[in-house]
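Discussion board: Methods & Data

I've been asked by a reviewer to show the raw model output for two of the constructs in my manuscript, not just the figures. I'm not sure how much to include, so I'm pasting the format here to get opinions. Each protein appears as its amino acid sequence followed by a line of discrete structure tokens. Is this the kind of thing reviewers expect to see in a supplement, or should I convert it first? Here is construct A:
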Amino acid sequence: MLKLENLSPAKGSNKTNTRVGRGQGSGGGGTAKRGHKGAQSRSGYSKKKGFEGGQMPLQRRVPKFGFKNINRVEFKAVNLDTLQLIAESTGLNTIDLNTLYNAGVTAKRDLVKVLGRGELSSALQVRANAFSKSAIEAIEKAGGSATVEKNVTIEAGEKIKISSVDKTEGKKEAPVAKKSVAAKKVDEEATPVKKAAVKKTTSAKGDDLKKIEGVGPKIAGLLNEAGIVTFQNLADATLDTLNGILAEAGSRYASHNPTTWPEQAALAAAGKWDELQVLQDNLNGGRPE
């Protein structure tokens, strides 16, 4: 009968660990159960990572590629559109490493190289550590000059705030004067008709143009501002109109190709979603593959 006083583990469930290296008196013979010779019979044995018994380990069998060039020089890339943005925000004609640092574009230890992305319309005197060939041509074409500078000490000056092109679009808003509580009450009582008119115009929503492959939230906003709010509007638009909208928005939209947008919009306007899906499966970012 099983009782508390005769409880014991099942036979074979517990195994006593073998203690090796305790001398002949432990019953392990002359080698004390360590075996004959070899690294594992010695004290202090420790198998290093990657050890495979003496054969060539994996990390040495796998081929190596490339090397680390100790003479490599890394530059911080600054493009022409950034220089144009700084010139428009500050009115400066000379842009050097101090200007870029104070504008938050580069760090003190950065070596700056000017690259040719974007458009430059201002005649600027640009000083940097290096220039690409296209950047030099664009700067000189705009009437400016590109000067290579070395060993320049950066001096922290007044921070320069760069206004975004998308937010301002070259226009400055006049500061709004604070109104008194009495003036606010008068405005609220006098403008109920205007609020109703705004609700009317905003209640009529257009189609979700983001369903057209190649049209994201920002491009959809540009199309809406141009009066293209429905699939049918987009289907009726010409390629020249669409390219003109993208060109006015800036160089960042120059890589977009609206060739298939009217065709996709026509299918969406007709409710032919299956055909639209088949067409979009053969497109790459809105472009024909």
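Construct B, same format:
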Amino acid sequence: MPDLKPDPMPDPMSGPMSGPRRGPGPGPRPEAWSEAWSGPLPDPTAGPAPGRTGAPGAAEAGTAADAVPTLGRGLARLVERAVRCAPDSCGASTTAFTDEEPEPCTAATHPDLSALVAAQLEAGEGPVPEALGSGAPATAEDLLHDHRWPRYRARALDAGLRSSATLVFRRDALDLTLTVYGFRPGCLDAPCRGAAEELGDLAASGFDRDRRYRAALAEVDQLDTALRRRPAVDQARGIVMCVLGCDADEALAVLRRHSQHANLRLADVADTVIATRGQGLERALGRV
């Protein structure tokens, strides 16, 4: 059984995959590829993000957001369950593309499979790019005789893989692919792909729901911050009214123009006005 610790991702299409070389024979047992690994494709060996630090209040403020599973953890669970739902498969990988992240997020049951996904995205060749482009499944019944994706075929056979099936699921701001692999040709039959399709569809809906929930939490946090800073803006507006002898609307307009001119947030401008109590600001505010 090979070491399950993630190996550094190789340069896609430039050399042999990580781990021992395997011919197109039976390969290692499926149990050898059963540990899920997840992370962004450019840095698959990066460790988990550091824990939350800071004052207790900051930790309490993040409780609601922390309760939502991260995309990486969700993808790791997805590939683990995909292998269980497809008993004839030897491993699985999944990749998520969202508007929130500049790079795709991937998870796989073995680092070799993560490298295989990275190689496809780098070269734009393979079942994952084809499924993303067409919106339809991309299946290879026997890679030994399937020549559609030469680079993918070579790397997959080098890893001992003979078959694969890639499914794609689309939501509003999410594109999700799920690929199951087999050590034997033709082992990924219709029932196997059907179970993976049902699982992937449920997972995509769940990821999209979590994304919407996180976005709602971020919006609520922004609104809360704005409400807490509103008294400071009102106080600064009153000071500007006294300094410039203007009405409330004009004072707010002056603060906003100064905020844009100085490239500062309105709340920061208000804090400065309050801290100086308007002293020396008549000339500065009058210029804007």
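Answer (T.O., handling editor elsewhere):
This is acceptable in a supplement if you add a one-line summary per construct. For B, something like: Residues 1-35, 39-62 have pLDDT under 50 and may be disordered.
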